[in-house]
Amino acid sequence: MILNVENISKSYASHRSGDRAVLSGLSLQVEEGESVAIVGPSGSGKTTLLNIIGTLDHPDEGRVLFKGKDVTHFSSRQLAAFRNREIGFVFQQHHLFPQCTLLENVLMPTIPLKDSRLKAESIHRGQELLKRIGIWEQRHQKPGELSGGECQRAAVVRALANGPGLLLADEPTGALDQKNSGLLAELLFELNRTEGVTLILVTHDLRLAARAGRVFLLENGRLVRRP
Ligand SMILES: Nc1ncnc2c1ncn2[C@@H]1O[C@H](COP(=O)(O)OP(=O)(O)O)[C@@H](O)[C@H]1O
Ligand SMILES: [Mg+2]
Predict the structure, then answer these.
(1) What domains does the chain contain, in order, with CATH numbers?
(2) Of 202, 157, 177, nearest to 54 (Cα)?
(3) Where does ligand 1 bind, in terms of residues with CB under 6 Å?
(4) I want to staple 199 with a disulfide (CB 3.0 to 4.6 A). Which of 78, 162, 185, 192 is the partner?
(5) Which atom of ligand 1 approaches the CA of 13 most closely?
(6) In sequence order, which residues have a C-beta less than 8 Å from that of residue 34 and are 6 or more positions away?
């Protein structure tokens, strides 16, 4: 099992109505190589859940185990290294650096790698993925010179450059038109199949979600399995 989310709860203080529970006793187990989609209305806590899984946020209660290791108690230094190596993030916006080329953006996560073999592997992987998804020709261009779909595909390559075990995608097609949205989804599921990266995809798009191995609805702070 790559991910074991055990009974997590998270509330936010709200001055109008006291604490508001966003996640309450939520659990999720994910096997290596699986694809899981999470759907739910806006405000239901999908981003909060993904951020906790990706260790960008902390649960009030419960634990997150990654390959059996409790990451909820890692130090900030351990977390930074863990995230860089093991977790790939893709958001609704691509968050590429506008002053850097696509290639520089994609290879950004390889900069902190100290092990020279790992670093070489990651650089190679980033370059191969750019070729595979058809934006190698554009590698010396800057994000502002490319379409939203191309930038988002580059963001996926950046997320995978270091060969993470887990790819977390938070409404990655939300800012794309229908055609590019379809292409990006295709890419995510293909990489899940061929690279073996475990995929957790948050989406509004039920058709897209249906392509995942398992689909959950986030409702009342918990995940409910959809048939
Ligand atoms: N940092 C925060 N401080 C206070 N409330 C927050 C914070 N982040 C999220 N929330 C609230 O938690 C709820 C869930 O938000 P979110 O996880 O972003 O939902 P979703 O991604 O499903 O739209 C919302 O009501 C949101 O307003
Ligand atoms: Mg969200």
Answers:
(1) 3-9+22-226 (3.40.50.300)
(2) 202
(3) 12, 22, 40, 42-48
(4) 192
(5) 4
(6) 2, 198, 199, 213, 214
195-210 per-position pLDDT tens digit:
999 999 999 889 999 9
Residue nearest to atom 13 of ligand 1 (CA): 43
Whether pLDDT at 14 is above 90: no
- Six token digits for residue 224: 């409910």
For residue 46, what are the contacts with CB-CB under 8 A and spacing of at least 6? 38, 39, 40, 170, 171, 202, 218
DSSP state of 40: -
pLDDT attached to residue 217: 97
pLDDT value at position 102? 97
**Which residue from 9, 11, 12, 93 has its CB within 8 A of the most atoms of ligand 1, so it is best to mutate?**
12
Enter the pTM of the model.
Answer: 0.95
